[in-house]
Amino acid sequence: MQKSKERAMQFEKELKALLKKYDTEIEMEEIHRSYTGSEYSMKVYIPAIWDKDGDCIAESAEIDLGSYYDGD
Prior knowledge:
Elements: H1 4-21, E1 26-34, E2 37-46, E3 49-50, E4 56-58, E5 61-66
Antiparallel strand pairs: 1-2, 2-5, 3-4
């Protein structure tokens, strides 16, 4: 049986590989502040890719994951 720590490490390794593949990271952004607390959203920004001649070969992209994101 695979232990909890092993599963977590494997997931983190695969997530880091995916983030590295797209040269990006996940950031937490405060989107609303009130007297009862704050609301946050996770965002992923994928930078544009430029070729050696300075031409854009892939546009940048932004993905708003919201405050909860699952695999479905």
